[in-house]
Write a structure and sequence with these properties.
alpha/beta, binds flavin mononucleotide, 37% helix, 7 strands, Rossmann fold
Length: 213
């Protein structure tokens, strides 16, 4: 059975624009694989604490300091990632970057000796690659001719996720949610078209939606 892991990062939960976009992605994945099991990992509500002192210490030493506390939470979150055949991350842009909830999740799952290793030529990811769909919502625009702000969210995710072996990243966005409703509807339509194109292109190779194993 295929498994979808949805990491939901907006404090607005299920009414969030990014959650809405993620739902559209998940619907298409489930059309492709109707029996796929879906896990919602909700972190936007602040339920995921920051990593603790032992965890931070282990990142700077040669061995893991403690198997309890946030190291245990980290292990559970990493196992959830490992089980997933594809991952959907729904996230707003906060202050040009990732919201703190998403950053806290990344601090848990990007762990030396567990999801990446350090070599002479740099960090090497240890997770098997699989598709990661990123559903972003932003009040203003961060890409295209109408962008009026820098974007530290997508470049960051493009750098950090490959660090743990996740290279197959697919970005979709609804930008400009602070604009008038007609423009928000246009932005949603734009995202819908991008999804349509992506999933139509992939029908020739359905496996492209899922981890190969
Ligand atoms: C703390 C905070 C910071 C924000 N910073 C930005 C920003 O830098 N750029 C932007 O375009 N929108 C920003 N926004 C607006 C959100 O990105 C926008 O409302 C988005 O649609 C929320 O998505 P959601 O409904 O999925 O939470 C910010 C919102 C909050 C709450």
């Amino acid at each position: 059975m295929k498994r979808i892991l949805h990491v939901s990062c907006s404090p607005r939960g299920e009414v969030a624009e990014s959650f809405r976009l993620a739902r559209r992605i998940i619907e298409r994945l489930q059309q492709n694989e109707p029996t796929a099991h879906l896990t919602h990992r909700v972190i936007g509500d602040g339920s995921l604490p920051h990593i603790d002192a032992d965890h931070a210490q282990s990142q700077a030493s040669d061995s893991d300091v403690s198997p309890v506390g946030s190291m245990a939470r980290s292990e559970a979150l990493i196992q959830e990632l490992e089980c997933a055949h594809c991952i959907v991350i729904s996230t707003p842009m906060h202050n040009l970057a990732a919201p703190s909830a998403l950053k806290a999740w990344i601090d848990h799952v990007v762990r030396v000796r567990r999801t990446f290793t350090i070599t002479r030529s740099g960090k090497v990811g240890l997770l098997a690659d699989r598709p990661v769909y990123v559903a972003i919502s932003s009040g203003g625009r961060f890409s295209g001719e109408l962008a009026r702000q820098p974007d530290f969210l997508t470049p960051y995710l493009k750098a950090i996720l490959p660090t743990i072996g996740l290279h197959d990243l697919r970005f979709f966005s609804v930008q400009g949610t602070n604009a008038a409703q007609e423009y928000v509807l246009q932005a949603r339509e734009h995202a819908e078209q991008a999804l349509q194109e992506h999933f139509t292109d992939c029908t020739a190779t359905p496996c492209a939606h899922w981890r190969k194993d």
